[in-house]
Amino acid sequence: MGRVVGRVRVGPVIGQVKPIERAKTEVTHLDDQHPAVFADPGGTRRRRLRKLAYVVGALLFALLLAFWLSQVAVGVAPR
């Protein structure tokens, strides 16, 4: 007989998952505050990223404007 769609062959159970009550977990203590990884007290990184974001935004806007003008400026003549 061929393959029947919708039927699944189930094998024997190999292992068993422990119930959630017995599972080993780790507790994070909120008292253990680690120092910030990306500390920037002078604000240099923030200023550079803001300038970079403005430049990228202006370039994208210029590309969008150029594309839009290329679509509007060249009209298609009817045949």
User: What is the H-and-E element order?
Assistant: H
Number of helices: 1
Mean pLDDT: 80
The low-pLDDT segments are none
Q: What percent of residues adopt helix (DSSP H or I)? A: 25-40%
Tell me the Rg in angstroms: 31 Å
- Beta-strand percentage? under 5%
- How many distinct beta strands? 0
Oligomer: single chain
Description:
The chain crosses the membrane at residues 52-74. Keywords: Membrane, Transmembrane, Transmembrane helix. The protein has a domain at 42-73. The termini are far apart. 38% of the residues lie in helices and 0% in strands. It is built from one helix and no strands. The protein has one helix at residues 44-73.
Helix/strand layout:
Blueprint: H1 44-73
Transmembrane segments: 52-74
Keywords: Membrane, Transmembrane, Transmembrane helix
Supply the key terms.
79 residues; mainly alpha
What is shown here, in short?
Helices cover 38% and strands 0% of the residues. The chain is mainly α and 79 residues long.
